[in-house]
Amino acid sequence: MAGLCVRIVATGAAALVLAGPAPAVASDRGPQLRATIERASYGVPHITASSFASLGFGVGHVQAEDNICVIADRVLTVDAQRSRYLGGTGPADANVRSDLFYGKAKDDRVAERWLDGRPDGVDAPSRQARDLVRGFVAGYNGHLRRVGVNGISDPACRGKPWVRPLTELDMWRANWASIVRASSAALLDGIVAAEPPAAGAQSAGAQPAPVPDPAAVLAATDPAVATAGSNAYGLGRGATVGGGGMVLANPHFPWDGAERFYRMHLRIPGVYDVEGAALIGDPVVEIGHNATVGWSHTVSTARRFVWHRLTLVPGDPTSYLVDGRPERMRTRTVTVRTAAGTPVSRTFHDTRYGPVVVVPGAFPWTATTAYAITDSNTTNNRSLDGWLRMGQARSVRDLREVLDRHQFLPWVNVIAADSTGTALYGDHSVVPRVTDELAAACIDAPYRDLYATSGQAVLDGSRTACALGADRDAAAPGILGPGRLPVLVRADYVTNSNDSYWLANPAQPLTGYPRVIGNEGTPRSLRTRVGLEQVQKRIAGTDGRPGRGFTPQSLWEVTLDNRVYGAELVRDDLVRLCTDNPAATASDGASVDLTAACAVLRQWDLRADLNSRGVPVFREFTLAGGLRFGDPFQVSDPVYTPRRLAVDDPRVRTALAGAVQRLAGVPLDAPLGAVQTEPRGTERIPIHGDLGQTGTFNVITAPLVRGVGYPKVVHGTSYVMAVSFGRGGPSGRQILTYSQSSNPNSPYYADQTRLFSGKGWDTVKYTRAQLAADPNVRTYHVSQRG
Questions:
Q1: Where are the alpha helices (H) located in 308-363, listed in sequence order?
Q2: Which one is catalytic: 41, 230, 462, 746?
Q3: Which residues are paired to 267 by β-bridges?
Q4: What is the pLDDT of residue 36?
Q5: What band does 10 get if pLDDT is binned at 50, 70 and 90?
Q6: HSE-up of 666 (CA within 13 Å, CB side)?
Q7: Are 182-227+305-375+434-467 and 562-696 equal in CATH topology?
Q8: How far apart are CA 58 and CA 47, in angstroms?
């Protein structure tokens, strides 16, 4: 067993001594892995190493220190072992379905095929990316050896039999799972459930394929990406006080589990120097900045997969026709075992396009028709290299070249700005090559409405002419090349809040792109609208703050201003409506007195601050479908229309009555901080913010518990970064809302959450001087023979 050496040197804080095996001695196992870790305030690690393997080693070590249970659980999933260790009885069980899906991925050797390095125009994964992963595994395993499974301080996995040393394949499988989150993984249930019709159904004769209901398709395919979202600004010299660029990163992600972010600063002198955040378990900064350029990501509207309607061979539902010739589906039977040792098996069916998928009510498998998907991200092994190269870019121009060459972003946009004051928006994500020409020729009439409304394409799988093809400038076959993707470079600003590319800047709408990427000329979400208005008013100096243009302070204030934009538009109309009609009938037929709710709304400050009273009433009203507009959207005024409540729509009053019913037992006039909290041990930390549906920029999603309130945040503002590029280098503010560690026994379990509650911040600590100014830095060194 390789030795692990850990030395702790106190700097401005008491020394922390970690016991461990004796220092490593020279061996023939390979070069030594060595990293210096400087833990700053809130436990944020600044890691310095001389190679990518050693850098990954440091990352793996600190992430295991803070979040070993999260990483172990993530690996349990991709190793298809959840039902064995966490329980599961049959295919209806979520753990079993997960294991069947990831068991198939293991059998398909997805990670091994990624590592084959098959040429697609990009050398990926590169030796540097492989070294990062190798080092991460060594760092994690070294920490696990030192503490032992029974010595883990986090009760979530202390002593659990499913905690084990990692392998490099574990991490590549986890990387694959993250990349296909919005495609194959979003269709996990439909892939697992797909099986040919029974013999009786086959003999029933040919039946016409149902016309898919867009709502049913979206309900089955979009929930997996609904838990992710973001706001981001790229501010150019025309929008900032200092003339340099600024970036706001404000991703909205789950507050628990494998999709938590982790703050870190990674440095190889002269090679790579990036501060920011990554999802736990990833060894490279994914949202952040270097000395001269910063970037963030928002979830893109582009689709990651396409459907292929298969015409089946008569009498054989596992064969399909292509250009009139039959092809048999390939089958693979996967078996998983539950905790009781019971085997559960499922036979999967694959086609030349990809796996067969079923969506009840939309895409069934009948005697005549089946549906398969092509997932454009299943071969996207370029992500780690792409983020590495982004971190090495020195300008927006460099960044764009990286995006064009690698085309690695799996399901996100990029928003960036640099020290010259140039801002960039781009949907450089991996998008199936569904051009307008292909859509017109290969999407039959029953499926055109689905494509027009959602961008989901159902291609005719019986013709090779309907294959995705290849763009000459694309990084891989079957995806749109960068020449077909929307990009905008500006000297003032670009934004995105999860609507399509169309209004990245209303002064220069992006138009003429394939529908598979997103829609154009359609209403924007309230969150998009308030995000644009905030930028425009700050540039003009009309938002009530002093001066014009952005500084890190004003950017922070704007981000956490907690305006509830939907209420700003309709509250007065709603109050007049409920004042004139103080009784309403709820959807269950009950008569509800609206007097108290109306009074609370009348006095509300229209914000979602801790002391704001009325947020729950408007939130539940919105969730009940009451936020309806009576005036039309105008494409010539997309930021400010529609804006008037549909007072004549009876559903408005019904929704308000439903909100009052749902809030029974919760004081309607309680301040938000008294009813919306985040638990940390026995402490309940009050949390500000509201739903994106209400038009709140600072998104916080906390489910209502009847009679209690909102006692647990499940999703929302996570990592916030407001970075500015000036003469002295990058500066600004940042925070990780749910704190650095998921371990209740860690000193970094609640500190940033309390800070976020008070709208506080931690400073950017990119330069040596900025880090030296932190009085809480403690330094230690980790090393072992590779």
A1: none
A2: 230
A3: 48, 273
A4: 98
A5: very low
A6: 28
A7: no
A8: 6
The label of the residue with tokens 């990831």 reads 102
Place of tokens 């982004």: 390
The overall average pLDDT reported for the chain is 93
Half-sphere exposure at residue 182, Cβ-oriented, CA atoms within 13 angstroms: 23
d(Cα 139, Cα 693) in Å, to the nearest integer?
42
What is the spatial distance between Cα 204 and Cα 494, in angstroms, rounded to a whole number?
A: 56
- Given CATH 1.20.1290.10, say whether it is the number of domain 562-696: no
Q: How many CB atoms lie within 10 A of CB 649?
A: 15
Provide the CB-side half-sphere exposure for 94 (13 A, CA): 3
| 3-state helix/strand/coil string of 40-82 | CHHHCEEEEECCHHHHHHHHHHHHHHHHHHHHHHHHHHHCCCH
Instruction: Mark residue 232 as left, alpha or beta (left: phi above 0; alpha: psi -120 to 50; beta: remaining).
Output: beta
Across 657-665, average pLDDT:
98
* Whether residue 230 lies in the annotated active site: yes
- Domain ranges across the chain: 182-227+305-375+434-467, 562-696
Type of residue numbered 705: V
Q: Give tens-digit pLDDT for 503-559.
A: 999 999 999 999 999 999 999 999 999 999 999 999 999 999 999 999 999 999 999
CATH of 182-227+305-375+434-467, one of 3.40.190.10, 1.20.1050.10, 2.30.120.10, 3.40.980.10: 2.30.120.10
pLDDT band at 207, cuts 50/70/90?
low
Query: Do the Cβ atoms of 718 and 587 come closer than 8 Å?
Result: no
Q: pTM of the predicted model, to two decimals?
A: 0.95
Helices 127-147, 168-179: crossing angle, 10 deg rounding: 120
- Cα–Cα distance, 746 to 750 (Å, whole number): 9
Strand 729-736 relative to strand 719-726: parallel, antiparallel, unpaired? antiparallel
Strand order in the sheet with 293-299: 4-10, 778-785, 32-39, 45-49, 261-268, 272-279, 287-289, 293-299, 412-418, 423-426, 487-490
Candidates 378, 480, 477, 470; CA nearest to 429 is 480
- Structure tokens given for 753: 């959450």
Phi then psi dihedrals of residue 513, to 5 deg: -105, 155
